[in-house]
Amino acid sequence: MASPLPTLQSWLLGQCHREDAVGTLARLSLAQREDVEKLGFEAWLEQHVAGKVMAYAIEQVRAEYAACLEKLKSTGHSPSFPSWRVDRVVENASADAWARHRAEPGVSADEYVRRKRRELRGQLDKLARPYIDTCHWIRLREVVMNDPRMNARYVPVLAKLRELKSAGKILCPFSFPVFVELNKQTSDETRRAMARLIDELSDGVCLEPPPVIEEVELRRQVLQSVFGPGAPDLKEWIWTKAAWVCGQALPEATAFSPEDQNTIKKVFTDHVWSSRLSDLVEFSPTKPMPPFLEELAAKFGQDAKTYREQKATYQRVWQEEKTHLVGKLVRQDLPRIADEIWRQFPKESALAMNANSGKKKPDPGMLASVQILAAVHASFFTASSNMKFEANDLIDAQHAAVGLPYCDLLFVDKPLAHRLNSKPLDFGRVYGKPITGDPVEFLTWLEKL
After folding, report:
1. Which of 413, 328, 432 lies closest to 374, judged by CA?
2. Which of 89, 287, 360, 418 has its CB 3.0 to 4.6 Å from that of 84, i.e. a possible disulfide?
3. Alpha helices per DSSP H over 346-390
4. For 233-277, what is each residue's pLDDT tens digit?
């Protein structure tokens, strides 16, 4: 069923962010909302026609509104009225949010975010979580769109995924690498269709971006040095929702009182929890691979040439890559994390420092995503001389690094699956999880659920 088209008044309210005559009129309608309600919107507009500036703004509003309706009718979305407004996502998510959060002033925004994350982790712990690489999301999207290029083997896979998702048995989280690759698609129609499919099977749940996951793992490592095996695993901080796929951010509304700032942050968190990937990519400019990845791939290619000329072993390159990645993480984040934990747990930290005096420090190589990333890079570095390092190889390494430690199965492209399952990586055995690039094997795993 198609969403109802917006009224002229609701469309205008959606333009309050603009810094032109239309935005000025939109903010004026909000400031004079009592007059708008008393007179009616059209009558209120007519009051301002006498002014030349406002007359021009009203003329522009009507023209842009008409263009918006045409876009919505023909394509289902318009740049001036995005789908989250058409579908009333924000309104539905926050119908009672303001009153609810004002009634709990003692709950800080930080505590509320922690509560939402703990609830999300509790839900995910009960579900099977297959990680689906971008290449397979594309094949599944072709089934949805009845694309002539569709691979018939994916038809039963999609049917089974939908069946298990409806039965509350699985959830298919996406990731920052998937988000990056999704935005590379040149077709607006296929990009939006794939995003809607991911929303359907993920409920907007995604893994944090790689740098955030690495920081969580480092923090967990420090806590283990303080509390030992009983340290919290912090996995609730591995998962987030679509709006925070690039990292958590809360609004700093400093013009308001501290109490209202706290309420605004909690309401915003509710909006994040109802966010959809399809809203994020609706108007994303289609781009090639991010330039920094191309530059990094070129530098990796130079390193690979050096290692291959030296006939360096995989073990040597792996250790060097781990040292580089962990060293960067430790320099950037460890002092801050250690200081936070010391201030929060001074007694335990002091006891741990004395107990560990003279003992071997926790091995930073146990950072799961860093260890996997370093291992995949090393396997590329020591591959045959015919292999050229590409930017896509860096994305593949990130798929493995974020998906393998925290999901139950890795469904990636066949070359990557072969690399991850083969020596020297042998990750299928090391992590005790299926890694496959074959839709038939994936379907067999799903059917066993």
Report:
1. 328
2. 89
3. 346-355, 368-381
4. 999 999 999 999 999 999 988 888 999 999 999 999 999 999 999
Which residues make Cβ contacts (< 8 Å) with residue 423, sequence separation at least 6?
none
Q: Is the dihedral of CA 421, 424, 427, 429 positive or negative?
A: positive
Q: How far is CA 257 from CA 100, 262, 270, in A?
A: 18, 9, 20
Does the bond joining 415 to the residue before it have cis omega, within 30 degrees of 0? no
DSSP-assigned letter for residue 80? T
Q: Prior bond to 424 cis, omega within 30? A: yes
Q: Can you read off the two tokens belonging to residue 315? A: 């073990």
What size, in residues, is the chain? 449
Collapsing DSSP states into helix, strand and coil, what is residue 433? coil
Spatial CB neighbours of 147, under 8 Å, sequence gap ≥ 6: 141
Residue 122 has pLDDT above 60, yes or no: yes
Is residue 403 a contact partner of residue 175, using CB atoms and an 8 Å limit?
yes
Residue 227 CA: distances (Å) to CA of 88, 222, 231, 333, 357: 46, 9, 5, 20, 15
Q: Helix 368-381 to helix 391-406 angle, to the nearest 10 degrees?
A: 140
Residue among 439, 428, 315 at smallest CA distance from 375: 315
pTM of the model: 0.87
**pLDDT tens digits along 25-63:** 989 988 898 899 999 999 998 887 766 668 888 999 999
Strand partners, 132: 411
Q: Residue 258: how many CB atoms within 10 A of its CB?
A: 9
